[in-house]
Write a structure and sequence with these properties.
Number of strands: 9
Number of helices: 9
Order of helices and strands: EEHEHEHEHHEHEHEHEH
Number of domains: 2
Shape: elongated
Radius of gyration: 20 Å
Largest sheet: 4 strands, parallel
Distance between the termini: 50 Å
CATH superfamily of the largest domain: BRCT domain
Structural class: alpha/beta
Length: 226
């Protein structure tokens, strides 16, 4: 299983022809070393199948979601390995009602929207990331950057005159965890000087927006208010 055009598994009901699949796995450790290395080499935009034990708001899951892959449970991999062939995916689509209830969304609906969005959920938006907003995330800004860019946005740690000119037609969003830090105060001041509404949101808004594949700026629960 991997990114190579041909696998060692024959395709079920396909007259044993080779079957091109590219798998990205998150939250599953039961690999042999060779298969794990192959899976780790898959890029999000290459994957045809995302394998997960549950719905996760990880960098891998949210970045791959933008490309609307088939999202399957880890049982599918186990059966493919056991049978040494590609098993029909229809019985193995990821089902996680607890996470759907927790995050108030439906995975099937998000996948449909992702297919319609075509990786353009954040198209036309420039995101400035305050370091404090991502201090609790592994690799901090880099993790958030990959999620945002996979969904069509542009991500920077600070906005400069140069990138404001380069992205002059973009709407700028600040991701922060406080309205009282320096980045937020400067951001608000600049927006007010040009009579623009300051768009300041926290990381929860980013994760929820990507998971639902629906861009809304009216969610008062996510907009920072102090």
């Amino acid at each position: 299983l991997g990114r190579t055009p041909r696998t060692k598994f024959s395709a079920a009901n396909k007259n044993s022809q080779d079957y091109d699949i590219r798998i990205l796995v998150t939250g599953y450790k039961d690999w042999n070393n060779q298969t794990e290395k192959v899976s780790q080499s898959i890029r999000k935009h290459d994957c045809t199948h995302l394998i997960a034990s549950r719905i996760q708001r990880t960098q891998k899951f949210l970045s791959a979601l933008a490309y609307a892959p088939k999202i399957l449970s880890v049982d599918w991999i186990r059966m493919c390995i056991k049978e040494k062939k590609i098993i029909d995916e229809n019985a193995y689509f990821l089902i996680d009602p607890e996470s759907e209830m927790k995050y108030n969304f439906k995975l099937a609906e998000s996948l449909k929207k992702a297919g319609e969005n075509k990786c353009s959920l954040f198209k036309g938006y420039l995101f400035q990331i305050s370091p404090g907003a991502v201090s609790n995330y592994n690799n901090g800004i880099d993790t958030v950057k990959q999620i945002i860019e996979a969904n069509g946005g542009v991500c920077v740690s600070t906005t400069s005159r140069r990138n404001e000119i380069e992205y002059k037609d973009f709407s700028i969003v600040l991701i922060s965890n406080s309205l009282n830090d320096r980045a937020s105060k400067q951001f608000i001041e600049k927006r007010e000087e040009t009579n623009q509404v300051p768009l300041i949101y926290n990381m929860e808004w980013v994760l929820t927006t990507v998971l639902r594949q629906e861009l809304k700026f009216t969610d008062e629960n996510c907009l920072l208010r102090e």
